[in-house]
Amino acid sequence: MNRLVRFFILSSTAVILAYLNYLGLEIVGKMSIVICIISMSPFIIMVLIGIPKVDPSRWFELPEEGASSEKAGWEDSGWLPLANVWGVLWRPLLNNLFWNLNSFDSGANFSGDTRDPGKNFPRGMFYGVILVGMSYFIPLVIAIGATDSLQSDWVDGYLAVAATQIGGRWLGAWTVFASGISNLALFQAEMTTDALEILGMAERGMLPKIFATRSPHGTATYGILLGTLVIVGMSVADFRDIVEMLNFTYAISLLMEYAAFIKLRIAKKEGKFC
């Protein structure tokens, strides 16, 4: 795709979704629930159809000999070497695991807009971790066990191919569609948490007061605007570069969060941090 066309599509989509985010948390929440049901349904069907076809011995097959970064389409560049140990490319594996399983801490940004956060927030986090983990693990286990795929087959989009082999072309098409719209919910959730975090920092004096401004819908006006500008600016970058860059910055932010937690535990042993 032409770079200019790609930039126009991505930036215009980001602006439209940001405007929906600006209209309020209620819209974001309802849309996310609907998208969650639609996006998870093909994987549930794939699991139900695939269970009788599973051959457990496939789960324990070792990677084929000669697995390489060139075969997987990765270049050995960057700060860390692209280590190939036991047929596994560890840098992209860890990057993808970190990418897909991070940001649980971002849920805390919704606590100010949650009824009885002391009770509902921990419960939501507990169920969220279980659901996210199972939504990755169970479909992958079924897809590996119910198909004759090789390690080299597992490239971008192969889960849709596995769904096609298990349930037919209709299930594969549904999986592609579900994967696409799930990105809309991910965008909205991430945009909301980032904007609320910026608003909270502004309310505590860590950022200019202008970022503490709320729209008539109760959303963080300038936090959403700033996030949109960053997304539009990053839309010209390669996705793999974005993953590695965001994982690096997120790891730094986690270290700062843990350091702040330890300091508060030492300084305020009674447990009241506010």
Protein described:
With 274 residues, the chain is mainly α. Helices cover 65% and strands 1% of the residues. It contains nine helices and two strands, in the order αααββαααααα. The protein has helices at residues 3-22, 25-50, 69-72, 90-100, 117-146, 158-167, 169-203, 221-234, 239-267, and strands at 84-85, 88-89. Strands 1-2 form a two-stranded antiparallel ribbon.
Offer a quick outline of the entry.
With 274 residues, the chain is mainly α.
The number of distinct helices, counting runs of at least 4 residues, comes to 9
> What summary fits the major beta sheet?
2 strands, antiparallel
Radius of gyration: 21 Å
Cα separation of the termini: 50 Å
Range of helix content: 55-70%
Using the alpha-carbon principal axes, give the shape.
globular
Q: Quick one: how many beta strands?
A: 2
Uncertain spans, ≥5 residues at pLDDT below 50? Answer: none
Spatial ordering of strands, largest sheet: 1-2
Quickly give the structural class. mainly alpha
N-to-C order of helices and strands: HHHEEHHHHHH
Mean pLDDT level: 80
